[in-house]
Amino acid sequence: MNGANILFYLLAAMILGSGLLAVTTRQLFRAAIYLLFSLIGMAGMYFWLQYEFIAAVQVVVYVGGITVLIIFSIFLTQQAGEKMLVKKTGQQIFAAIAAFCGFALVMIQIVQNNFTATKNLSLSPSVTNIGNQMLGVDKGGYALPFEVVSILLLAALIGSIVIALRTPTQTS
Amino acid sequence: MMEPGLYHLLFISAALFFIGVYGFLTRRNLIAMLMSIELILNSVNLNFIAFNKYVWADKLDGLFFTIFVIAIAAAEAAVAIAIIINLTKNFQSIDVEETEEMKY
User: Fold this and answer.
1) Which value, in Å, is the radius of gyration of the alpha carbons in chain B?
2) Which of A74, A145, A164 is the closest to B86 by Cβ?
């Protein structure tokens, strides 16, 4: 049991524990903070796997962007200290059963399957390799999906401005 | 305890996915449902990275899919929060069982 293994289990406990708290706590702001810790644990897991670029992207986009956006919208829409309403107990029990059965099914499939690693020489996930392949236009390059995603981001930007700018005068 | 490997990562990923599914089914608040979706997308990212590292270490495709999922999740969160803020203006509530009309 060396330090790396201990770190792995600590990160796993952090991800799963704060993820579970994020979906069960009654206070919305606390749920957002627990989500933040789950995302930070995920970034740590990427560091543990030595995918430093993905870990940095995770910290910048999720921890720095999406969580701040969620907290911002909580402040815009909620009263402070208000507890969330819960669904009926029957619905909660059925949701828990459905989630557990799905989890058991997936884990049975995973344990029965035998994954064999490739014999080829491994390619390091360095920023040089990522950049060369992501913007490459030859075979195996990802230039077209990259452009499509940039169009999608532009469309989402314009769409969210249009949705949020709609004047409330047409209501009532 | 064993040496952490592919199966451990797949266990974490599957557990986080179904935690997100449970949250999505039990929450009534739209922002809380959005948080559950973020958990689900994160578990998918971990799955891609785990397979890329432990099964196809000679390629980088899983990593690119992770980057695209992160970009799409950011776009989705921005649009969802715009809709939620607009809903708050019109209904003064973001509870999914009180906002029943699509058209006003």
Assistant:
1) 17
2) A164
